[in-house]
Amino acid sequence: MIVPENMKAAVLVAPGKFEFRDVPVPKLGYDDVLVRVTQVGICGTDIHMFHGRYAADALPIIPGHEFCGVVAAVGEGVKNVKIGTRVVSDINIGCGACYWCRRNEVLNCSEVTQIGIGRDGAFAEFVAVPSRLVIPAPDDVPVETLALTEPVGCVIRAAKKSQVGIGDSVVVLGAGPIGNLHVQMMRLVGAAPIIVFDLSEARCQAALAVGADIAVTDPAGLKDVVMRATDAIGADLVIESVGLVKLYETAFDLIRKGGHVAFFGITGPQDKLDVPILQTVLQENSLKGSVAAMGEDMHQALRLLVHGRFDVTPFTGAVYPLSDIQQAFDSLPSRPNDLKTQLRVS
């Protein structure tokens, strides 16, 4: 595969502004691979970056981390993958040797960076990735499906952190793209009932279609619904998947004694939460944070997608060419029913 010196890339130069530029193709280190990007999804994190609410100090940057592609070149030391291999990729780059990396908690590594967030990513024709992070993917799986590997990995990790069990009652706050995936993940692990809350009727209907048992659009009636569905006990697990302090506060009002709150939605860096300390102690409640897929989470996500365990239909309807990235982002508020927007690169 011939690799050019320059490539097309969408550079986020300021909040709300992309520039479609010719930039140099990334240089490869000894253990790196160069991936020719095929398809890449727009993540909620990308949207936060676009609006200046997250990782603003990293600008200008090429975002994009939900991607699949084909290996175009390899560094001198790469032995585990060959040119021409179809791949997806973990995005979390740690030192690989510290206490946190050894525990697959790479985001806590003091040297961590993330593709598309802390360093240039996949809103471009090519992206450089350490070879240990790429995962070979089957040739017969659609690119729209492969590009969902990273977000599916995120909900897998959240489920692990929450230690959700068969028959556990779960409330998912937010029925957007990641909320929909949380619903599907909870169904896979055997949770019941699964209650979803969102102000959008359309998103609630989409969640019901993929496995939610009950959908609620009225905030005032949410607690009553949860209590009726759980014999007045409260939910075993509440997942906040939006990133609103008010919803995190709501979560504590919905869990049972001994229940869990999964902290997943990203808030602003200055947002604080008044945790009911006495209630949390006396009821032995727990809080579990989770944000990104790492290591085996990604391998498991790919296997589940390859074998059809997730309904990807709600996520594959809105596809833009990379050159139209500004339009894709600007139009997001007018397309609330599109659970996922993807960019076709090559």
Provide tags for this entry.
alpha/beta, single chain, Rossmann fold, 17 strands, 7-stranded mixed β-sheet, about 350 residues, Quinone Oxidoreductase, Chain A, domain 1, 6-stranded parallel β-sheet, globular, 11 helices, about 25% helix
Description:
- This protein is of the alpha/beta class and 346 residues long.
- It folds into two domains: 6-148 and 312-344, Medium-chain alcohol dehydrogenases, catalytic domain (Quinone Oxidoreductase, Chain A, domain 1, Alpha-Beta Complex), CATH 3.90.180; 161-289, 3-Layer(aba) Sandwich (Rossmann fold).
- Helices cover 26% and strands 26% of the residues.
- The protein is built from eleven helices and 17 strands.
- The protein has helices spanning 44-50, 99-102, 143-146, 149-162, 177-188, 201-209, 222-229, 245-252, 277-282, 296-306, 325-330; strands at residues 6-14, 17-24, 32-41, 66-74, 86-89, 92-93, 113-114, 126-130, 134-136, 170-173, 194-197, 214-216, 235-240, 255-263, 286-289, 318-321, 341-344.
- Strands 3, 4, 5, 8, 9, 16 and 17 form a seven-stranded mixed beta sheet that branches.
- Strand 13 (235-240), helix 8 (245-252) and strand 14 form a beta-alpha-beta unit.
- The longest helix is centred in the middle third of the chain and has 14 residues, at 149-162.
- It is globular.
- The two termini are 14 Å apart.
- The relative contact order is 0.16.
- The mean pLDDT is 96.
